[in-house]
Amino acid sequence: MDHRHSSDLGKETQTLICIICRLDKDDMSLEHVIPQSLGGYYHIKTVCVACNSMMGNNIDSPLVNHKLAELYRFAQNIAGKNGAVPNPFSGVFTAKEAPKNKARLDVGEDGKLEIYHHPSIEVKEENGQVVSIEISVDSKDTDKIDAMAEKILRRRDIPKEAIRRGERRVEISTGSFGSRWQLDTQRFKIGLLKIAYEFAVDTIPGYFEDEDAIRISEILHDARYDAVLDYVKIGNGLQQEICKPFEDFIDFEQKKHYLIMMPTEDWGLMCLVKLHDLFAVGVVLSNKRYLHEGALRIGVNSIEDRSFTKLTGEEMIGGCLGSGSSMFRYFFDKAEFEQCVQEVNNPAFRYEGQANEAVPLYRRSGEKFCYLEDALKQSRITMERKPGEMVSIFEFDPGQEYFIRAVSTGKLYQVAGYWRSQSIVRTI
Ligand SMILES: [Zn+2]
After folding, report:
1. pLDDT-flagged residues of the chain (< 50)
2. Is pTM beyond 0.85 here?
3. What separation in Å is there between the alpha carbon of 231 and the centre of ligand 1?
4. Distance of CA 206 from the midpoint of ligand 1 (Å)
5. pLDDT of residue 2
């Protein structure tokens, strides 16, 4: 990100470029990358006040107020900015058998749903004469019956005395009530595009100047819902299975949101946005990759811990792996091949540093060269995932000769690679 300083009458004021309008601004605000009302705890300070409030209305709103998001917030008990948990069942429901009977669902103080029957009034007439008035109300409204009856009489100019009050009947209406919901299938995706874009700008140096990054900021700035699918390309927004490749390391059952950024061969830089078990999409951020093959940038937003953490792929994998076993791949001279194989395969064979992986490596001359750790860094790494296990195969730089030293004899053995298997014991 560009940080520019301008000096005004000797007073130093700092202006920053807003990542949405891309203008120099001095009024940056706290932007929630993942909306607060979805349990987001990831903040950045690179969006100006005007863009922040515009995005609240045009970008976050279709996501946060999506019917499924309302259901989610209700189920997870996540209050919005106004402190209230939304009622996804607001609106009027109609009895399937008797469409005149209407009801609504209220959220009680205990957070449970309660059905509330709208009052219904039926006036029966014969030959222009009112013969009966039937008022049915919710059990909570029984004290309102008298007032309602009076109102009807007044309107029809019927004296109270003319009414012979009937018995109060208690009827419990059962049967199913229905309502139609409109589910948005497109507009909410702009909110997911914003999350991926802001995560990338905040995480990948140089991405802000990317051609696609510029275009995405324009789409967000102008709320171009029609252009969102140019970038939100993977999944329809609800397919959780797009994150399946990470299931060894990530426990998707936890109350967490995950952002997983990675380079891909076909798409370039991509980000999976997985909001707990609500929405999941893959966003293509650029046709350039930015990260080297196999690298990852992961954002973990815990709703319960109210926290957001960034990890690299190595940190994620390292945090999930337990103990394991390892061995060297040897390179033996033809002349002493048989003898060497026998020696290193002997269960009593030990090399220096074997116990703690602080293995000194030597040159052919016997001079100390470096440690295993250093050679691993210079290696070509292939990782293989097996059920519950991660196998890393390191091929040492072929331009170097590395030797390990046998503890008992001091003899040097040439090594060409290293193999390590670790069990996967945790998830992030
Ligand atoms: Zn702005």
Report:
1. 1-11
2. no
3. 21
4. 19
5. 46
Per-residue confidence (pLDDT) for residue 1, from 0 to 100: 46
pLDDT, tens digit, 9 for 90 and up, residues 157-211: 877 777 666 655 555 555 677 777 778 889 999 999 999 999 999 999 999 999 9
Q: How far is the CA of 7 from the centre of ligand 1 (A)?
A: 21
Distance 46 CA to ligand 1 centre (A): 8
Centre of ligand 1 to C-alpha 287, Å, is: 25
Question: 342 CA to middle of ligand 1, Å?
Answer: 70
Write phi, then psi, for 228 (nearest 5 degrees).
-60, -35
- Give me the residues paired with residue 134 across strands: 122
- Rounded to the nearest 10°, the torsion over CA 204, 209, 212, 213 is 60
Mean pLDDT of the residues in the chain: 87
| Cα 91 to averaged position of ligand 1 atoms, centre (Å) | 36
Q: What CA–CA distance (Å, rounded) separates 68 from 237?
A: 11
Instruction: Tell me the per-residue pLDDT of 60-99, one tens digit each, with 9 for 90 and over.
Output: 999 999 989 988 888 888 887 778 888 888 888 887 777 7
Distance 49 CA to ligand 1 centre (A): 7
Determine the distance separating the centroid of ligand 1 and the alpha carbon of 217, expressed in angstroms: 10
- Cα of 5 vs centre of ligand 1, distance in Å, is 17
Distance from Cα 394 to the centre of ligand 1, integer Å:
47
Calculate how far, in angstroms, residue 208's C-alpha sits from the geometric centre of ligand 1: 14
Q: How far is the CA of 57 from the centre of ligand 1 (A)?
A: 14
pLDDT of residue 288: 97
